[in-house]
Each structure stands twice: as C-alpha cells, then as structure tokens.
From TrEMBL:
Protein name: Replication initiation protein
Lineage of the organism: Bacteria, Bacillati, Bacillota, Bacilli, Bacillales
Length: 483
C-alpha cells in the first residue's frame, strides 16, 4: 500500500512525471520491511517491462527520489521505500492507498505530469471510489477566489481543464456536474461531447471569456472510477513478499516462478503470521528458518505439492529459532547470576541458593517475550518443548533453578512445562522407559528433519489432543520435569 502523506499534492507537485509513475511501481516490489530485495539491474528490468521509463532515465529518477526522502539505500545497497506500507488488515482507509492494477496499465503510465498531480490529489483527498465535492474554481488560479485558497497550481482554467479532461478521457475519474434544480449530469469517458459539456457548465467557451455573473461557483463531484478501484493486486500477484524466499531458494535449484499462484498461499502463510504477531523480528526469524530449511536439503517442490510446507517449516525451523531466543535469554541471565553470586556451572545448589536466585529475579526481572512462549506452546510438537527445557536445564545448575523460578512467573512457560510433564509421564508409563531415554528420542526426532521427514499431521493432532485432555485433568500444582 502507498502512504497517503507521500502522495499529497503539495509533495508530488515537484516530482517529474517519471518520478510520479515510479512510486506505485516501486511499491509493488516491496517486502513487508519496505525493502526491495532485487538488484538495481533487476529493478530496471521490472521498470522496462512495464514501460515506466527508459533505463537511461531510471537512475536519475531514483537519485531524485532519494534526495526527496521517498526512498533510501540500506547497508546492502537495496532500495528501501519509505512511502510503502504493508497491508496487515488493520490500516485506516484514509492513510493508505491500495495496489491498483491500474498503476501498471498504459492509462496511468501515459498520463502527463500535471494530470498525475491531479490524480494523486483526488486519490488522497478522499478514499478512492468515494465522492469528493469541490468547486472548479478551487482547482486553478483565478480572480474569483483568493489565490492562496486554490488547491492546484494551475495558472488558468484552460491549463487545468486540459489535464482534468485527460483524466476523464482515460476513464480514471467520473464527474457529476451539480446543477440547481436542473438535474445533475454525469460525465465519463463514454459521455458524448464531455469536453464541451464540462466547459459549458463552467461558463467557458473556447476562445471566449467566462460570462460575468458575479462570484458564481461551479460545484462538481469527482470520484476515482469504479473500474480502477475494483481491480487490485494482492501479494500473490506481485510476489514481492516472496522475494526473500526466492533469493534463498534459487542457489538450491528452486524457481518460484514454476509454482502456481494458488500454491503460494501455503508458502506465504507462515511469513504473514510471523509478521502479524512479531513484526520485523518475525521477518528475521522467517529468513533464518528458510536458510536452515534449504541447508538441510528440504524439498520445496514436493512440500508445496503436498501442502505440508507451512506446518513443516513451523515445526522444525521456526519454532526452534524461537526456542533458541528463549534459551539464549535464560542462559545469559543464568551466567550473570553465577558471576554475581560466585556459582559455578556444576556446583550443587541448595535451597538458600534457590531463594537467592528467586530474590534476584524479583529485583531484576528477566524479560521473556510472552508472545514467543505462546507461539512455542501452540505451534511446536512436544519434542521441541522437551529439548528446549532440557537444553536450558543442562546449561548449568543455576539455569536449572532459574527455569523453575521462571515457570512460576510466566503462565505461558508454565503451560509449556505442564505439556512436557504430562507427555513425559505418559511415555514413561506407556513404554516403561526412563526420562533420559525419552529426551534422547526427542533429539532423534528433531534430527529427522535432515532426512526431510515430518510427523503426520493427523498423528501429531491426536498426540496434542491427548496431552490437552490429560493437562485439563491435572490440578494447579507445580510441574517439575523428571530430568
């Protein structure tokens, strides 16, 4: 989506026609973090494909947009579009403009500079498709109104009407001429003699002055045409939010262009979920998970075909990345406690040490992301929860004590602990094996991802349902994992 504040008339009037055309074209290439994950050469190819401008003029236009604060370059030399806004479904309709297919069509790309100024004015002053009432005299400099009150920077009616009528001719806008007691008249590109009709309405004749009738105003109702508003591009049309996946996949021999649009939903859903819940941090997790997926030999084509990619990536790559964040945070905090109290990693700690750690946490609260803990609890298979808890406890005696303290402080961590405890007890009873053997099984299950195996969804669902049922039968006592 395009931010309205960057397309206001006062701001775009100083841009060239090419710069005005480039704005929606660059926006459709942006990822959620406003970055275009294409090389400058690839962007030129996209611009050339749409016939926005020649490659010779492209570089200068980009430099000017950087100079005017519309875009910038990050440390990797990639373009960042500040006028772009990702559509997360919660935006105010008056702040952002959708990606209309019209922006990629000749009707838009062939508009003159001043016509583009008028178009952006009508698009930003009111939600596209909604009527905007204004007197014609407000749109050009004239003696009827104070010059400072005029919206457009048009020197005369003739100059204004040339570009205004171009918008009607191309079907971009429709206009209603508001008349007192005579019935309103609608002008569209299909209206016969619409040019003459508009000029007659404004008391203008070609080559003649306006007939003097004192200070009279000619009110019109302008709206962006329905044909423009109804045709929008979604992320699957643009594929802009899958550029990172594409760039990561290509070195491993996978081409996203071979994947049908309807199959992109499964590819994109985990990324959208992460962005919605965690913002740019979720984007970082998504990309790290993708890198590891391909490094481990994941078969993108097969999993897209089987519609297992989304669950597979969540279970074996996204959740572990989040678990690593939690493990790192707790281990780092444990190390700080050891340094402060003089504990060693293998020291046997007594109840006094436990109480000291508990007091330290109360005075220096450790900040764990509750959303991450909830994601781990809701999205991961139990094996991942087990290995996370085990890794934290195995780090040191301090981290083991700290984990127990935090379990009482965080409802989300307590829920994870409860699921792990219930699962462990059921496996000990069912298989008659030790908790150490169950942990070993959990690590082996995690390791299976390198052979591109995944737990059957229905089996996984059955296991989770059983654990949930058993958890509900438990009381509110603390759950101490048996390892």
């Amino acid at each position: 989506m395009l931010a309205v504040e960057y397309l206001k008339y006062e701001r775009v009037k100083d841009l060239t026609a090419i710069e005005k055309r480039l704005l929606p074209t660059l926006a459709r290439l942006c990822d959620y973090d406003k970055t275009i994950y294409l090389t400058m050469s690839q962007i030129r190819d996209e611009i050339k494909k749409l016939k926005v401008c020649t490659t010779k003029l492209f570089g200068n236009a980009i430099d000017k947009l950087i100079e005017r604060g519309y875009i910038s370059k990050n440390d990797d030399g990639q373009l960042v579009c500040h006028f772009y806004h990702p559509n997360t479904g919660t935006e105010s309709s008056y702040k952002y403009i959708k990606h209309y297919k019209f922006f990629t069509e000749a009707a838009f790309l062939n508009l003159h500079k001043r016509s583009l100024e008028l178009l952006y004015y009508f698009m930003t002053v009111k939600l596209p498709g909604k009527p905007h009432l204004i007197s014609v005299e407000k749109l050009y400099k004239n003696k009827t109104l104070n010059v400072d009150s005029c919206v457009g920077n048009f020197a005369s009616f003739e100059e204004f009407s040339t570009h205004f009528l171009e918008l009607i001719e191309t079907g971009v806008i429709s206009v209603v001429l508001k008349t007192k007691g005579k019935g309103d008249k609608i002008l569209t590109k299909d209206t016969a003699r619409f040019r003459e009709t508009f000029k007659d309405f404004c008391d203008k004749k070609d080559g003649k002055r306006k007939s003097r009738m004192g200070k009279s105003f000619h009110v019109i109702e302008v709206r962006i045409s329905e044909s423009v508003v109804k045709e929008t591009e979604d992320i699957y049309d643009r594929r802009s939010s899958l550029r990172d996946l594409e760039s990561i996949a290509i070195p491993y021999g996978y081409d996203l262009q071979l994947i049908a649009k309807e199959d992109l939903v499964d590819l994109h859903s985990p990324k959208k979920e992460l962005i919605d819940q965690f913002g740019l941090f979720g984007l970082k997790i998504w990309r790290k998970a993708l890198e590891k997926f391909f490094m481990d030999g994941g078969n993108l084509y097969e999993q897209v075909q089987d519609r297992t990619f989304s669950n597979y990536l969540k279970n074996w790559y996204i959740v572990p990345e989040f678990a690593n964040e939690i493990k790192t945070t707790i281990k780092t905090f444990a190390d700080q406690i050891e340094e402060e109290f003089g504990f060693t990693k293998k020291m046997n700690l007594d109840m006094d040490a436990y109480n000291s750690i508990k007091l330290h946490v109360s005075l220096n609260p450790i900040q764990l992301d509750k959303n991450i803990l909830s994601y781990i609890s809701n999205k991961s298979i139990v094996d991942e929860m087990l290995t996370m808890a085990h890794d934290i406890k195995a780090h040191s005696r301090t981290s083991e004590f700290l984990f127990d303290v935090l379990t009482t402080n965080y409802t989300e961590l307590k829920e994870i602990n409860k699921k792990c405890f219930t699962y462990m007890m059921s496996k000990i009873k069912e298989l008659n094996i030790t908790s150490e053997e169950i942990i070993k099984m959990a690590y082996e299950q995690r390791g299976q991802r390198k052979q591109n195996k995944i737990m059957n969804d229905s089996v996984q669902s059955d296991i989770e349902d059983k654990i949930e049922d058993q958890c509900q039968q438990q009381d509110n006592t603390e759950f101490q994992l048996p390892f």
